[in-house]
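Progress report, Aim 2. The chain analyzed during this reporting quarter is listed below.
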Amino acid sequence: MATVHHWTGLEARALRLALRLSVRAFAQQLGLAVATVSKWESKLADTEPRPDTQAILDTALGRADAAVHLRFETLLSEMTSPVQNTGRRRVIASGPRAWEYESWADDLDRVVVALSRQNFSFADSLLTRWLSRFKAPELDEKGLYLFARSTALLGDLKRDQGVVLGPLSAQHSYAGARAVFTQLDIPRRVAQLDLSLAVVTEMSGKLEIAARNYETLAVDDRLSRRDRARARLWVGTALSKDGQHDYATRVMQAATRDFEDLTEPDDWSVAHQKLALARRGAGDLTQALHFIDIARSSGTTDSPMQRVRLDTAHGHILLSDAATRDDGLLVLDQAAKAAAQYGLVHQLRSIEGIKAMSEGPVGPRQR
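Predicted structure tokens for the chain:
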């Protein structure tokens, strides 16, 4: 929530507008003369309320609900953005004010939650709110850090929506965030963006390049042990997509052991899902079903994205055996509906591709 360390007529006007009150109604609510509020409105930053009145304004803002705070922050930011010199004596702040840093960081926490639930429109509105308000050259180091985090999260949003390449894509956002973190000299964040860019490379079909990038990052000390384990798992994913299923299985099993040691149930579940697909590709449907059953019964996430991925993998495996083909189609239909509901374009394309391939000869028999 916003706080004001020192009130002027400018902040008072922003609060009145955020409360959606007339000058008279605002004065009545505060217990002040209409002339006092009118003076604030005319002089703005050139006048300061008395100390006792500052306390009254603090109380009015503190009692306001979240919607009023959001409007107040937005209005105040618009009022304090750089403007042309009109000859009036007024000091204008460029870049975020102190309270805006806290609001920005809070919004990024909300974006992370929204993305985990695939609430893309809400996440996009929060990110656009800040990325459209400030430009990198006007920010100090704290602002640049928040700007880079916002840009990286925008990349995650675009990636989950399947917008991988192009000027408004995940790749573009990740590259922009990486450049800012490089400028700030934060190696861990730079390496995390390298990992995200490797994912984009894999999603765009450049499997050999992606596998090499993952292999490098799997032993990169800039990354946490969990991120290195993820890179190792994704080496296996790229290899499996490239047809090297047995080698991919060995790599994935090493990553799975890491996730078990790290007590990461969600990553451990994802690893078994990837193992299931690798064994399906190798024609070992018994092991594929074993691994997908583990994946479906473990993990703690309730993410729509992960549910769609699990159903897609399960349906793909069932579709590979003539005896369970119809069940596989039903599971894939269920996954497609969920993918369409949440705007998971990349997953929907994958499901359509699997169903199209199933119209040819039936895949390997279970052995």
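Residues 82-93, 361-367 have pLDDT under 50 and may be disordered. Residues 154 and 268 are 26 Å apart (CA to CA). These observations will guide the mutagenesis work planned for the next reporting period.
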